[in-house]
Amino acid sequence: MQQQLQTMLALQDQINTLVNENWREQNFAWYRAIWVESAELLDHYGWKWWKKQQPEMEQVKLELVDIWHFGLSLELQQGSPEAVAAKMEQQLSAEQPVAGDFRENLEAFTLNTLSTKQFDLVGFAQLMIDCDMPFEDLYLRYVGKNVLNRFRQDHGYKEGTYQKLWAGREDNEHLAEIAQSLDSAAENFSDQLYTALSNRYPGSQKDLA
């Protein structure tokens, strides 16, 4: 877990720096992004008692990954990646709570976020348990989304020249297929993902489109 946390923290630092070189000094309102994402998450889970709703668990997990991005950014402002990873591992390795009421736990997490303007890692871990999302799943989803975000930025996303659709499929579909063929335990897992995406992208030397 320690290595995976350090990998994710390093990736988050890279993507934040790509967007703004001095992101740490900007004091962005990461906590605000977290509570807004939490509201979107609740919509995917369902809360309206006047209509039939089924939790969209895949979307719920994707929203949790988005929250994790912002949470890592907040944590990185507290110290070095190594120190932060050690603290996070200690919190995540503590006695695991049992699954509970997802909606109530999400509200408690959001309330804590608003009152402290920090990342409630313990509360987040509870939400992962509530929706049956192990740490390994979080790691794979996060690394994949981070690599895809960086890949898009590097290939003209801001300029509007990036092609999201290749060979009749969206880039995230290619990403999921590639990730399944690689060893997620490898230290250079994210680099392998990025290279494989580059080899598939239209116009590359190994264009498979």
UniProtKB/TrEMBL annotation:
InterPro entries: dUTPase/dCTP_pyrophosphatase (IPR014871). It comes from the Bacteria. This is dUTP diphosphatase. It comes from Microbulbifer hydrolyticus.
